Amino acid sequence: MEVGTFSRKVELNTVDDLPDGLREDDHRDYASRPRAVFRYGVLFALAVLAGLGLANAFGEKPARDRAESRVAGLEVTAPTRVRGGLFFQGRFRMEARTLIKHATLVLDPGWQEELSINTIEPSPIGEASRDGRLALDFGAIQPGHAVVAYVQFQVNPAQFLKRRSQGVALTDGEQPLLRIDRSLTVFP
Known about the structure:
This protein is mainly beta and 188 residues long. It has two helices and 13 strands; from the N terminus they run H-H-E-E-E-E-E-E-E-E-E-E-E-E-E.
């Protein structure tokens, strides 16, 4: 058996030959600078947004607000800026300086609008609605004692930039004791 050779003619494109549909000034020489500036501008804007997110500009860092009177103290620790889809926790500390028979946290509607409440610990002994506000009854608190309630939330993801009131009131039954006014900003 004889091994044969064959020859094949191969044509190579030179640098000057461009495939169909491509033009030298747009694809090789890149003469269109305004489009390049736009592309780099978009990439820079995305990098800035990512950097701001890493620097916690869009939420999660909790803020602490406190109110005190001769009867009671109330402290709320929760983020004031969140992103869609985020899980976060609100911490509510109720302190009694005198007997509070029915320590009730009353949360403004901003604690429920576009947010899902996952759990409340410890569980309140009663829940009610007061003109669209969520009222959580934690029972009696003796003088010198405190009750700390933890509420886990999730931000519904389909939102645009929104700001809403998240005030919190501490009442003894229907009798107002303290109020903290705060707000929440939701980023998409």
